[in-house]
Recover the amino acids of this structure.
């Protein structure tokens, strides 16, 4: 049976950063990496907040049925394809991504443990915990640099969508996690060392 690792936590808590560190350190032919950001629904199907703005920080923003179908297919040894999510950047042509089954799968996402059928697929569930104001500062820096958003729009979205969603939907997922990683200052090396030791052993046993 493949060994599955899931990583969740609030926005800008370090989920993707941890995934990328693991990607660099583990053999690519033995591990499949997935971000469930690629499973956001089309804009026309996105939920809206009370102000009428699209709310990506809600579980309904994710195409749960397609995500679950693809996870089940990977679990049974089948490859799956999914259109790349480009964060609605105009001029960026999304690619068609292929995810192939491997002895180890590592997935990350905001609501990864929200749905019990998906949550139960993971052998190791990790929760990235970063307190305020660390998450907000990272989100502000990231969205200004990578997505060109203004400070005012980032702050408004954070206060009206991101933070309420975290408190309602994401923070309660700590209870389903086997491992909680405190990420205050961005130093994930101690946690990374422990995880790599464990996962390299899993990969070796699968060979």
């Amino acid at each position: 049976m493949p060994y599955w690792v899931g990583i969740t936590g609030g926005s800008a808590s370090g989920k993707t950063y941890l995934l990328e560190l693991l990607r660099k350190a583990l053999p690519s032919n033995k591990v499949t990496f997935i971000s469930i950001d690629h499973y956001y629904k089309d804009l026309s199907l996105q939920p809206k907040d009370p102000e009428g703005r699209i709310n990506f920080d809600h579980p309904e923003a994710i195409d749960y049925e397609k995500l679950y179908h693809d996870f089940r297919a990977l679990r049974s040894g089948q490859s799956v394809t999914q259109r790349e999510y480009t964060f609605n950047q105009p001029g960026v042509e999304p690619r068609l991504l292929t995810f192939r089954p491997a002895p180890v799968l590592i997935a990350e996402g905001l609501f990864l443990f929200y749905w019990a059928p998906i949550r139960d697929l993971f052998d190791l569930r990790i929760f990235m915990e970063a307190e305020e104001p660390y998450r907000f500062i990272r989100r502000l820096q990231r969205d200004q640099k990578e997505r060109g958003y203004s400070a005012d729009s980032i702050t408004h979205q954070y206060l009206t969508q991101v933070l309420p969603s975290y408190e309602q939907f994401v923070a309660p997922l700590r209870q389903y996690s086997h491992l909680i990683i405190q990420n205050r200052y961005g130093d994930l090396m101690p946690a990374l060392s422990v995880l790599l030791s464990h996962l390299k052993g899993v990969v070796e046993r699968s060979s």
